[in-house]
Each structure stands twice: as C-alpha cells, then as structure tokens.
DNA sequence: CAGTCTGTCCCGATTATCGGGACGCCTGTC
DNA sequence: GACAGGCGTCCCGATAATCGGGACAGACTG
C-alpha cells in the first residue's frame, strides 16, 4: 500500500477525488480487486465497490469474466490513447517558453530527444528581442548529445545505463572545439545532474552561452530540454544563475503539464 | 454539435456519465469553453461549469490563464500517457484469441503491422489441438503484406493512400507462389474490405488455408490482424465461412477492448 | 468443516448534484 | 456612448446521489 496515494485519496473528500484515485490506481497495476484496491486507497470497501461497478457500467473499466477483478475498459482505453495521441509537446511548451523567454529576454529553444538515434533536434524557438541574438538555425536537424548545453541538458539526465552507453561510444578524448577527456565529460554530467541544469560556453558556437534543463513526460522519461542561448558579451555570472533558475522552472512546468510528477 | 455525443450524455442520467462525456469531449478538440461544451453535450451550462471547475481542482483539466477556456491538465495527461503506455495488444488479445481458437479448434495468430517498415510480424499464437496443425513458426519475424491472408488482412484495411503506396511499390505481376497482376491484387483487396475479412489458399505455405480480420486501435488505425490457419485437407466452404465470422468477431472484440469505436 | 479470503448488498444519514435563472464582464457595432 | 450578444460565474431550494458500517453468500484451503 502506497501511503502517498492513500493520503491523496483521503485528503480530498470530494466524490470526484475518489474516482480519480481509483482510475489512477490502474496506472500502477493492470488488475485490481475490490478489497485490494480499497485498502490500497484507504477507502471503505463499499465505496470502492460502487465506484468500480459504476465505472464498468460506463465502460471505463472491464470486469474479468471469472474472477471479480477489474482492468482498464474500452472507454478508458480510448480516452487514454486518443488523448495521449493528441498531447503535443510543442503546443504545451509554447506558452511556457514565451513567458520564460520574455523574463530573461534571451532566445529559448525547445529540443526533443530521439532515443532510437541517440540524438536530438530543435523543434521550436522563441527569439530574444536584442538586435544581436542567439539564433538556433534550421529546426528539425539532428545533433549529437555530447557538445553544447542543448545536448547535455538531455544527456546529463538520461538513466545511468543509457547515458553510459552513449558516452562509452564516444572517442576518448571526446572531439569538439575543445577536446575533452571522457572522464571529464562524465564529471560535468554528474555535476549538472546535481545542479538540475547545464551551463556551457562556446561549445557549439564560439561566443555563445547556453543554459538548459530537461523535460520529462508522464512516465518520467527525459524527452528533451529547454535551452537558453545568448552572446557572451552580454554575459555575467548573475545572469547565468538567473537563466538557470528560469529554465529549470520552465522545464518543470512543461514536464508537469505533460503529466510528470516529481 | 455532434448528436451522437449529445445523445450519449443525455441517455445516461448517472452523474458519472456526464464526467465521462466532458472528459471525452477533449478527444475531439483541444480547448472548450463552458457554454460551448454545454451546448455540444446538450447539458445545462451550470452543470458543465461545475464539472469543469471541479476537474480543474482535481488537476484533470487546466484553465487557460486569460480566456476562460479549458484544456487537458496534468493529472489527465499523466493518466492518458501512462495508461496508453501500459496498454498492451498482446495481453488484451490473448483471452479473446483463446476463446476464438477453441471455438473453431484451429490455430489463431496475432500479427502486428509496422507502418515504418510496411511489414508485419506475428507476436502471439494459440495452436489448435489437432495432431496435424498449422504452426506459424518463429514469432517476431518480419514479413511482407502482399502474400497470404495474414498480410492481406492488414493491407486490405489500410487507408487508401497507404495501401496504394505499398501496392504501387510492388513489381507487376506481384511475385509469389502464383504471380498475380497488380490489378488483380487490388481487386482482391477491395473485395476483402467489403467482406470484412480475407481468405487465402496456399499463398504463404502450400496446402494451408488462411482467414484473417483487421484489428484497430482507439484512433481507428489498423494495427494488425488475427489470422486462422489450417491444413486444406480439413477444409470446406462452410468452415471458411465460420472461420470468417469467428475471426471478424474476435478482431472486433480486441479492437473494442483497445478503445476502438466503429 | 471451520477459518479466511473474496465480492456483494442493504439502508438510514449525509451531502453532493441538479438546473433555471440572475448577474457582471467584455467586445464588438451602430 | 448606448446597446446587443457573446462569455463565464454564481445562487439556492429540490432532488438524488454518495456514504460507510455491517451483514451475507460463496470460494478456496488446510
């Protein structure tokens, strides 16, 4: 029994909160029985029984024919698949990006990770209003993860195994404007993960500063990142710190809107 | 305004039915206003207003900051993505396959389509109890769509554009045990689509009969099919007809469990 | 065949939903 | 600047739901 879930169900006495708790329970496990789910949620058996059966009547859940256990039904399956299909990172991120970009008044880029290619591509950008500003260039082009804060903002927050596999496949020292020993890259990634964001100077483009933070989807996977970029003649340590706070906050907001729970 | 949806919402007076109707409305459109949604569903404005705001309080929906419009919120996004992620065709199909295979007592195979490769692979099978029986062979191997009822059960039901692209890429005549003019293949596919299932004789394996019907996911896309196979010394027209009925019914059940609405 | 697990069901008290209508707000338009 | 028509919001008495403790029947097990 998960105390957090039980608390959440008990804290809000509104009838709907129970429905949400019951349906959300099926994100943890495929099948639930009445008593089982009732103790898991800390709710009376009769209440769970009623909700479960009403949900079956609505097609949200389905009762297994023999045992009295319940699974996800047609209506909920449809809702889940169609909504998940419509859920689009770009449109969810856009308003958050505009606010964040305006707050610092520097260019902010949205990049998405492709686990298959082990690369990323920028898919959207909000440019700063400065006459001299960071411009990503053509969107939807693939780039490697190991150079620049855009890539490292993803790489640093991938699961250890995945990150190791990518780093281990690189030559040692890692090529780039300034060749870096693999061990040094690993240390940088570790620090970035602890800090929650990445800062880089002139790795991808000379004279550019980059600050990035990861975006996660509802399953917790890192799916991309947000990246601030500006020319280093407008740079100072305080600005880097502010950019870090803003980009972490913005990335967290996008993750939350996508259903991620920290 | 969609009369079907409105009818569905009005038909069931249970409070939950309204909640389901409201949430399902977000599968049609990204944003809804109170009045807008109320007339769409044929419900009183006050009811929709209450449901919408309570849903926001639960995190299921989110209110756009400026306008009073509503979108999918964190909790619903999470529910959708995680459930869609957990939803597994194989485990959903298995019980249906076992019943259907037992009813005809012949081997029944589940095949999944890969739109990227434009091929399919068998991922599960329930074998018949006959000593001489159809056996698919190793699972998870890719095969082309244009030969045998397993592939045609998918190909025949793909959208016209997609089907045309695949057929047009084939040589004319189409190679196989019995070379077929492309026009003849197109006619076969058209007939199969009208009938709802595919019947083939010895196309993939000599001496084998195959009968298949398509499986669709919640978005209506054809994602694979179910295929009966048996040796032709156990065949007769009546059996083919029975197999057609059974496989169409089974495929429809799997599609429904995945959230497909005809 | 008792012990223990399961799901099911009943019923009075509680509490939410229900929905028609009034209200305030904003945005156009004449 | 008045007015119409769109919007979301809110109120409140009547209705109908949820609520939950507890009793019950069946299935399984040792």
Commentary on this structure:
Two copies of one chain form a homodimer. Chain A contains ten helices and eight strands. The first copy, chain A, has 262 residues and is an alpha+beta fold. Chain A has two domains: 83 residues, Winged helix-like DNA-binding domain superfamily/Winged helix DNA-binding domain (Arc Repressor Mutant, subunit A, Orthogonal Bundle), CATH 1.10.10; 171 residues, GAF domain (Beta-Lactamase), CATH 3.30.450.40. In chain A, the strands form two sheets. A six-stranded antiparallel beta sheet of chain A has the order 5-4-3-8-7-6. In chain A, strands 1-2 form a two-stranded antiparallel sheet. In chain A, strand 7 and strand 8 form a beta hairpin. The longest helix of chain A is centred in the last third of the chain and has 21 residues. Chain A is elongated. Chain A starts with a helix and ends in a 5-residue tail after the last helix. The interface between A and B is large, with 45 and 45 residues. Chain A binds a DNA duplex (30 and 30 nucleotides) through helix 3 and helix 4.
């Amino acid at each position: 029994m998960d105390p957090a879930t039980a608390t959440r169900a008990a804290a809000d006495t509104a009838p709907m909160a129970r429905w949400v708790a019951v349906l959300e329970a099926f994100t943890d496990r495929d099948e639930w029985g009445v008593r089982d789910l009732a103790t898991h949620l800390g709710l009376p058996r009769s209440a769970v029984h009623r909700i479960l059966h009403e949900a079956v009547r609505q097609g949200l859940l389905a009762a297994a024919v023999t045992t009295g256990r319940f699974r996800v039904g047609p209506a909920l399956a449809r809702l889940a698949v169609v909504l998940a299909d419509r859920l689009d990172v770009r449109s969810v991120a856009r308003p958050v990006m505009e606010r964040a970009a305006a707050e610092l008044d520097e260019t902010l880029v949205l990049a998405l990770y492709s686990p298959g290619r082990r690369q990323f591509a920028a898919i959207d950008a909000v440019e700063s209003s400065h006459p001299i500003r960071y411009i990503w260039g053509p969107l939807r082009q693939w780039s490697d993860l190991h150079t620049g804060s855009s890539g490292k903002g993803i790489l640093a927050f991938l699961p250890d195994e995945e990150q190791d596999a990518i780093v281990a496949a690189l030559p040692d020292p890692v090529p780039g404007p300034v060749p870096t020993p693999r061990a040094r890259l690993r240390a940088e990634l570790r620090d970035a993960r602890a800090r929650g964001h990445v800062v880089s100077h002139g790795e991808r483009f000379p004279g550019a500063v980059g600050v990035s933070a990861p975006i996660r989807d509802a399953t917790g996977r890192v799916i991309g990142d947000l990246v601030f970029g500006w020319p280093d003649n407008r740079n100072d340590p305080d600005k880097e710190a502010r950019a870090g706070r803003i980009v972490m906050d913005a990335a967290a907001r996008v993750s939350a809107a996508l259903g991620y729970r920290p």
